[in-house]
Design brief:
heterodimer; A: alpha/beta; Udp-n-acetylmuramoylalanyl-d-glutamate--2,6- Diaminopimelate Ligase, Chain: A, domain 1; six-stranded mixed sheet; 35% helix; 17% strand; B: alpha+beta; Heat Shock Protein 90; six-stranded antiparallel sheet; 6 strands; 30% helix
């Protein structure tokens, strides 16, 4: 799915990255704990989160996250948005809750960046 | 007090570094937290090192940087790159760690609410650092500070000795 299709599906607003909507997305990871995102999320995945502080952007930069979807209608601070613009990481916000967001994406073929934490060596 | 993973000797003492740089990290504030990690990641990306090595190096740097911002007065990250490996050292002046074994346990944390608000402080930082490094060493002195050393292999055959 492209980020543009994801935006339509989630009735999301694009806050950063209007020029990156053609990006192709295949996998996703959802969490509010950045240490878990660091441990498990894979490069090129979509990050679903309810956190909005600048560390979400830093974490995404470290992992080469393709784009961030802020769920539950969360809106990041100007500081967070500035950092996302600087590091060229798309940020979208949707009013759907995390569960619904994940379900809608899964139904369209987006899968988790891993199925279980023990189904492969998680730490690679 | 020291805890080692993977080896018991200094792996790097006899090898010439091809790149070395030190980056100061401000303690007690999150204003620039992650800035050094982004810088180091960009540097490594420009060195034709595999994406996986760059990602792991950035990850352990980032968790270390968050630790310095969270717990120390001040600190620095020292990056060293040779054809065989990337070494990252996080050296801080701060309170130190009372019980390293306990601090290494997943889920154990002394984090404040402020740290938790940022999405950290769940007792995973040091575990992540250890798990994403090929070699990891931690030493700490109470009231003085903590020293982490992480080595990530570029050359798969490099055994650290």
């Amino acid at each position: 799915m492209t980020l543009r299709e994801i935006k339509e599906l989630l009735d999301a607003e694009v806050l950063v990255g209007h020029d990156q909507l053609d990006k192709e997305i295949k996998t996703a990871f959802g969490a509010d704990l950045m240490s878990d995102v660091l441990a498990f999320a894979k490069a090129g995945s979509l990050l679903l989160t309810g956190l909005t502080n600048p560390q979400v952007i830093r974490t995404s930069d470290v992992l080469d996250i393709a784009a961030i979807i802020m769920v539950r209608g969360k809106r990041p601070s100007p500081e967070t948005l500035r950092l996302a613009e600087e590091l060229l990481i798309p940020v979208l916000t949707t009013k759907y809750i995390l569960f619904e967001t994940a379900g809608k994406l899964y139904a369209k073929g987006i899968v988790g960046c891993m199925e279980r934490v023990d189904d492969e060596r998680a730490f690679t | 007090m020291a805890a080692w993973k993977g080896l018991t000797t200094n792996v790097l003492s006899h090898e010439p570094a091809i790149y070395e740089n030190s980056f100061p990290v401000e303690g007690g504030t999150y204003e620039n937290a992650g800035h050094v990690s982004s810088q180091i990641k960009a540097l490594l990306k420009g060195m034709k090192i595999s994406k996986e090595v760059v990602r792991r190096a950035a990850l352990v740097t980032y968790e270390s940087e968050i630790n310095i911002c969270s717990y120390a007065r001040s600190g620095k990250i020292v990056l060293q790159v040779t054809p065989e490996h990337v070494t990252i050292e996080a050296i801080d002046e701060g309170q130190g760690i009372v019980d390293i074994e306990l601090a290494m346990q997943e889920g154990y944390s002394t984090a404040t609410d402020r740290i938790r608000e940022m999405g950290f402080g769940a007792g995973m930082g040091l575990c992540n650092i250890k798990n994403f490094s090929d070699f990891f060493r931690i030493t700490s002195e109470i009231g003085k500070g903590t020293h982490l050393k992480m080595v990530i292999r570029i050359d798969k055959d490099f055994d650290g000795i």
